[in-house]
């Protein structure tokens, strides 16, 4: 019975997102369009590798981070604004089912996005990656999306229903630029390079770039540790905001 509840919640969450064309364009269409424009059509060399290979890593980060931020953040903000989250919490549905459904749904969207991007890169961009390295990169990007889902929860509790997309973009786009997801960090001003290590997108991009460049070193543990730290902080803030929302609702009863 409980497993069936989780399955149905996940099924309808996935179907709901599939019907929102703006969400599909923002989370799937934009990263793929950027990759085609800059990774395939302008496939120049960036040192020892082609841009199609480099951007598969960095725009892969941009893609999975966007799916998580908009998936968790916007949907949570809208459902809070409509009172839908309050209704679910008052129902006999297990409380965790709501969040588990979102984790599964947006992991699936990330997998679809990366599969399409990898197909474009290997099919048309002459991506220079071995099979094991491609699998490694895919796994790093999926695992590294976790802190962005946690950040999405924080933003979903902070933003209003109508303001959520713009609010998240105001954070996501500068964060992506300052992490070198569009332009390699060595070409950006020093002040941007000084900011980058304080951003989760930077740490995930460094892990992804290490895979495609073959430059594996001990700093990988530092980047994973930073991502784990961001996740714990964001989840802690989300829990506080969740309790604040629950207290307000109880005060209105």
Offer a concise description of the structure:
By secondary structure, the chain is mainly α.
Summary tags:
253 residues, mainly alpha, two-stranded antiparallel sheet, 2% strand, globular
Describe this structure in words.
There is one protein chain. With about 250 residues, the chain is mainly alpha-helical. It is built from eleven helices and two strands; from the N terminus they run ααββααααααααα. The model has no long low-confidence stretch (mean pLDDT about 90). Strand 1 and strand 2 (about 50) form a beta hairpin. The protein is globular. The protein has helices at about 1-20, 20-40, 50-80, 85-90, 95-125, 130-145, 145-160, 165-180, 190-195, 200-215, 220-250; strands spanning about 45, 50. The longest helix has about 35 residues, at about 220-250. It has a two-stranded antiparallel ribbon. It starts with a helix and ends with a helix. Helix 3 packs parallel to helix 7 (about 145-160) and helix 10 (about 200-215) runs antiparallel to helix 11.
From the N-terminal CA to the C-terminal CA, the straight-line distance is 30 Å
Radius of gyration: 19 Å
Strand content: under 5%
The beta-strand count equals: 2
Structural category: mainly alpha
Give, in spatial order, the strands making up the sheet with the most strands: 1-2
- Approximate helicity band: over 70%
**What summary fits the major beta sheet?**
2 strands, antiparallel
> What letter string, H or E per element, gives the SSE order?
HHEEHHHHHHHHH
Low-confidence stretches are: none
User: Quick check: average pLDDT?
Assistant: 88
Globular, elongated, flat, extended or rod-shaped: what is the shape?
A: globular
The count of helical stretches stands at 11
């Amino acid at each position: 019975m409980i497993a069936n509840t989780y399955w149905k919640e996940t099924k309808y969450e996935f179907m709901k997102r599939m019907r929102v064309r703006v969400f599909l364009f923002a989370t799937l269409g934009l990263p793929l369009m950027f990759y085609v424009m800059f990774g395939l059509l302008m496939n120049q060399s960036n040192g020892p590798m082609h841009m199609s290979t480099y951007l598969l890593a960095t725009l892969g980060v941009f893609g999975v981070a966007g799916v998580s931020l908009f998936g968790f953040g916007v949907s949570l903000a809208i459902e809070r604004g409509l009172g839908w989250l309050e209704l679910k919490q008052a129902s006999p549905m297990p409380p965790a089912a709501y969040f588990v459904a979102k984790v599964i749904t947006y992991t699936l969207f990330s997998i679809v996005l990366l599969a399409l991007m990898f197909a474009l890169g290997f099919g048309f961009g002459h991506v220079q990656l071995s099979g094991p390295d491609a699998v490694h990169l895919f796994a790093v990007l999926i695992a590294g999306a976790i802190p962005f889902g946690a950040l999405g929860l924080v933003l979903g509790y902070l933003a209003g229903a109508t303001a959520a997309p713009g609010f998240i973009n105001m954070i996501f786009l500068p964060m992506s630029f300052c992490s070198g997801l569009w332009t390699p960090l060595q070409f950006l001003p020093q002040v941007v390079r000084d900011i980058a290590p304080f951003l989760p997108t930077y740490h995930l991009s460094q892990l992804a770039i290490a895979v495609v460049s073959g430059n594996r070193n001990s700093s990988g543990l530092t980047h994973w540790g930073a991502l784990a730290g961001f996740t714990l902080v964001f989840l802690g803030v989300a829990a506080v905001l969740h309790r604040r929302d629950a207290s307000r609702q109880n005060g209105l009863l």
